[in-house]
């Protein structure tokens, strides 16, 4: 008789028969069993307080779904040391229900529930906290069914009506309560005229009308539109030098005219350059001699420069020739 097949656990490094390892549909394991024994997995989970995040990582490793509700049931009912093995065997024995779903399929479903705000409804340890929160929001005199009705109606109002500010929020709360009261009276065969009249009046006061309705997919601002476009991968090229409307065409015409006026017009460029050079030369001369800053004596000295007044004072004979005669 052939000896049973064995496998070495990567955590405890002990050789054990395949029965000590959980079955996995992952193609990463050739023998369809993960390489960590069930005892090591349970010991690790117990040491960490049966942490959901750690259990989720083991489920991802084995490619089986992670459902907190099922996991919690096995933690409460199974012997420690059998939790992980029982959990894995449960999913493999329910192929007719769960099909070929793996960890990724359930994780994507979880993300969808999270986006819709419905995670608490499928998590047993969170449902009690969720119910407590609803009672604080709506009051303690409502049943669980009534709380679900009120909360769903209020979410519908916030998604389809423009509810802004404390006043409109309070009106929406009262409208939901009146709606539930009307339904209760109808089921119990009681009078609905008074609550119905109050309901209709509150609808008008709060302007909960089709004219004030909004589509859940509508954009309320340019910021929301830009955010949605960026999520879709759109990137705004703020300026691509493309002519798209009459404004772009006008701007291009103005630019072309200015370029022609100051660059292409014959003579104007040279005249401007010459004028600038003249102003610069005059300014340099003024700074060089700085005549305006000279005192009176300095100005006279500057005016006498280059003249020999002694030569000019010497007497000279002048001869005037008049009609051929010397005077």
Write the layout of secondary structure elements.
Layout lengths: L5 E3 L6 E3 L3 E3 L9 E5 H10 L4 H11 L5 H10 L5 H10 L2 H4 L4 H13 L8 H15 L5 H17 L4 H24 L4 H13 L16 H10 L14 H19 L3 H22 L6 H9 L4 H5 L7 E2 L2 E2 L1
Antiparallel strand pairs: 1-2, 3-4, 5-6
Helix pairs in contact: 3-4, 7-8, 8-9, 9-10
Which characteristics define this entry?
mainly alpha, two-stranded antiparallel ribbon
Structural class: mainly alpha
Radius of gyration: 47 Å
Q: Beta-sheet strand percentage?
A: 5-15%
The end-to-end distance, rounded to whole angstroms, is 166 Å
Overall form: flat
Task: Outline the low-pLDDT stretches.
Answer: none
Tell me the total number of β-strands. Answer: 6
Mean pLDDT over the residues:
75
Continuous helix count: 15
Strand order of the largest sheet: 1-2
Main sheet attributes: strand count, strand direction, barrel closure: 2 strands, antiparallel
Can you give a write-up of this model?
There is one protein chain. This protein has 15 helices and six strands. With 327 residues, it is mainly alpha-helical. Among the domains are: 6-122, no CATH class; 130-212, no CATH class. The strands form three sheets. A two-stranded antiparallel ribbon has the order 1-2. Strands 3-4 form a two-stranded antiparallel ribbon. α3 crosses α4, α7 crosses α8 (144-160) and α8 crosses α9 (165-188). The longest helix has 24 residues, at 165-188. It starts with 5 loop residues before the first strand and ends with a strand. The mean pLDDT is 75.
């Amino acid at each position: 008789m052939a000896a049973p097949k064995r496998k070495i656990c990567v955590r405890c490094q002990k050789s054990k028969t395949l029965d000590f390892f959980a079955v996995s549909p992952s193609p990463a394991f050739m023998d369809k069993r993960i390489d960590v024994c069930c005892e090591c997995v349970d010991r690790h989970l117990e040491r960490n307080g049966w942490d959901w995040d750690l259990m989720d990582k083991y489920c991802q490793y084995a490619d089986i779904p992670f459902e907190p509700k099922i996991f919690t049931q096995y933690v409460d009912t199974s012997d420690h040391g059998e939790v992980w093995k029982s959990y894995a065997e449960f999913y493999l024995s329910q192929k007719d229900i769960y099909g070929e779903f793996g960890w990724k399929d359930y994780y994507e479903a979880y993300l969808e529930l999270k986006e819709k705000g419905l995670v608490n409804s499928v998590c047993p340890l969170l449902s009690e906290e969720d119910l407590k929160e609803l009672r604080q929001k709506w009051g303690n005199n409502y049943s669980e069914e009534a709380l679900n009705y009120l909360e769903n109606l209020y979410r519908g109002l916030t998604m389809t009506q423009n509810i802004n500010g404390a006043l409109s929020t309070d009106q929406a709360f009262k409208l939901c309560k009146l709606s539930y009261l009307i339904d209760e009276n109808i089921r119990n065969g009681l009078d609905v005229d008074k609550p119905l009249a109050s309901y209709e009046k509150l609808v008008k006061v709060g302007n909960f009308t089709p004219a004030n309705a909004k589509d859940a997919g509508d954009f309320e601002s340019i910021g929301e539109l830009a955010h949605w476009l960026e999520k879709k991968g759109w990137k705004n090229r703020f300026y691509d030098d493309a002519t798209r409307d009459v404004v772009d065409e006008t701007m291009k015409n103005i630019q072309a005219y200015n370029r022609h006026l100051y660059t292409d017009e014959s003579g104007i460029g040279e005249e401007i350059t010459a004028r600038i050079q003249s102003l610069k030369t005059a300014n340099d001369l003024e700074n060089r001699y700085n005549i305006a800053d000279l005192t009176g004596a300095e100005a006279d000295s500057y005016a006498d420069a280059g003249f020999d007044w002694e030569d000019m004072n010497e007497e000279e004979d002048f001869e005037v020739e008049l009609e051929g005669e010397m005077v």
